[in-house]
Specification:
The complex is a heterodimer of chains A (about 240) and B (about 250). Chain A is mostly helical and about 240 residues long. In chain A, about 75% of the residues lie in helices and about 0% in strands. The chains are: A mainly alpha (about 240), B mainly alpha (about 250).
């Protein structure tokens, strides 16, 4: 099989940009799972895969936040790599985007949130060295050089997270022949796994909303939607 | 000593890089120094005075990156006075130290724990209707609040100096935060039911309603299990395993 280097390059660039946006520049939420995943899907030619992988990770990580010096799991890496995995897998097989592939993307890359956090911690060592260099430059009277060190903190994030995201795309391409050989019942089960995981992610999101009465609001909204859906089915059936 | 408007905008632009070199030792210190530097060049033409001013901002600094804009404005307010000889340099150091903790709590509570989850859950809930446009809506809605407030905080700091904390208190961010958290919870619950119904409807035969009901039940069990501190990733994989087994054998 051949590896599509263009897809790897696109995944690298968008994954790297998202890491920089999440961590060090702007923080306008372009790197949130819903946005980062959807754009990754768009760039790799499968918006649906990116959108639904991103949606699930958005719910899963909804309440996580970087408070003080604490670091949550890296939701951006999980979403962009998961979207790249699912989109590259679908494209390599020439297959339409289906929930079974989205589930594979989520299951393959869900653990990357923890890896991303570990990588961030390692990269903070580089930033600590930059701070030391800035202080030394300021002491020596090289003030412009001192403040410029701030921008040098961005590129390691771009390279490291871009590479990890590109690996997600590569894994998707390499998994294509394996996915084609999966038995139909298993694929059907994987398709069922998507809404099951989304329900659990929504439950995690309700807890993550940090609202004492959140369960009441969530149950109320779920009840209204479920009743509306049941009425819709009943009307369609009759 | 006046700081030209062009330089004030430059400081604001550079404040968007506040966390570029976040490190465990000085935290956002490099970002703060980087943002302030164009204004320090104007305020302190003398090299030694500028060096001294820069070094007092290379000490530990950490707060919420958006609300930091108000501290940045307040620092410029004080630095102007220091440059004119109207107050001693330790006033600006005390100003930063006094504000960064309370403003971090305010920003974390409103932006990270209320606005972001609410807009995220609401836009995720609109995915079945809007498709990929929901992601664009997320960016637009969130930043309509974020960028406007960030610029407003910066202006407040510049104009009010020490009075910025009282002015921020009048914004009633915690009250808005509580309302937004209700929205986040309701949208997450509604979305769970909506997805269960959507996927159930796509499933042919008797499996459809079963799938939908099973997903909702899993959501309820998931809510209970999260409260019992079961790790989230274990829960996700358990749900997937159950669904794969059910889908394969039913």
């Amino acid at each position: 099989m051949t590896v599509d280097l263009g897809q790897l390059a696109v995944a690298f660039a968008w994954g790297g940009f998202c890491a920089v946006e999440r961590r060090g520049f702007l923080q306008a939420m372009l790197s949130r799972p819903l946005v980062g995943g959807t754009v990754m899907g768009l760039l790799l030619g499968d918006v649906q895969a990116g959108l639904y992988v991103g949606l699930l990770f958005e719910l899963y990580h909804l309440g996580a936040a970087s408070l003080g010096a604490s670091r949550p799991e890296n939701d951006t890496l999980a979403a962009t790599a998961g979207a790249a995995f699912a989109a590259s897998l679908a494209r390599s097989n020439g297959a339409p985007s289906v929930p079974a592939l989205w589930s594979l993307g989520v299951l393959a890359c869900g653990g990357l949130g923890l890896l991303g956090r570990a990588v961030e911690r390692q990269l903070e060592r580089h930033a600590r060295a930059l701070a030391g260099k800035a202080e030394a430059s300021a002491e020596a009277g090289e003030l412009r050089r001192a403040v410029r060190q701030n921008l040098f903190g961005l590129w390691p994030f771009f390279v490291a997270f871009g590479a990890l995201t590109a690996l997600g795309s590569l894994a998707g391409q390499l998994a294509a022949p394996w996915e084609r050989s999966l038995p139909l019942p298993l694929l059907r089960g994987l398709a069922w796994a998507y809404p099951a995981m989304a329900s659990v992610a929504a439950a995690i999101a309700v807890r993550g909303a940090n609202d004492r009465r959140g369960h009441l609001y969530a149950a109320g909204a779920a009840g209204v939607v479920a009743v509306a859906a049941a009425v819709g089915f009943w009307r369609a059936a009759s | 000593m006046r700081i030209p408007r062009r330089v004030l905008w430059r400081v604001y632009w550079r404040s968007l890089f506040l966390q570029a070199a976040w490190n465990p030792q000085g935290m956002q210190n490099l970002g703060l120094a980087y943002a302030l530097y164009p204004a320090l060049e104007v305020l302190y033409p003398d090299e030694a005075a500028r060096s001294e001013a820069l070094r007092r901002h290379l000490t530990v600094f950490n707060t919420h990156p958006y609300v930091a804009a108000s501290i940045l404005g307040g620092v410029l307010h004080h630095e102007r006075r220091i440059a004119r000889g109207e107050e001693p340099p330790d006033r600006v150091v005390a100003f930063k130290a006094a504000l960064m903790g309370p403003l971090a709590a305010l920003g974390d509570g409103f932006f990270w724990l209320s606005l972001r989850p609410a807009v995220g859950a609401a836009c995720a809930g609109l995915v079945p209707w809007l498709g990929g446009w929901a992601a664009l809506l997320f960016v637009v809605l969130y930043n309509a609040v974020h960028l406007v407030l960030r610029a407003r905080f910066y202006r407040m700091g510049l104009l009010l100096g020490d009075g910025v904390l009282a002015a921020l208190g009048a914004e009633r961010l915690p009250v808005w935060g509580t309302r937004l958290r209700h929205v986040a919870a309701a949208c997450a619950g509604g979305l769970a039911a909506g997805l269960a119904a959507q996927f159930g409807a796509q499933q042919p035969g008797a499996g459809g309603p079963l799938l939908g009901a099973g997903c909702l039940l899993l959501g309820g069990v998931g809510y209970w299990a999260v409260g019992r501190r079961l790790p989230h990733n274990v829960l996700l994989f358990l749900a997937a395993g159950l669904a794969v087994a059910a889908g394969a054998f039913l």
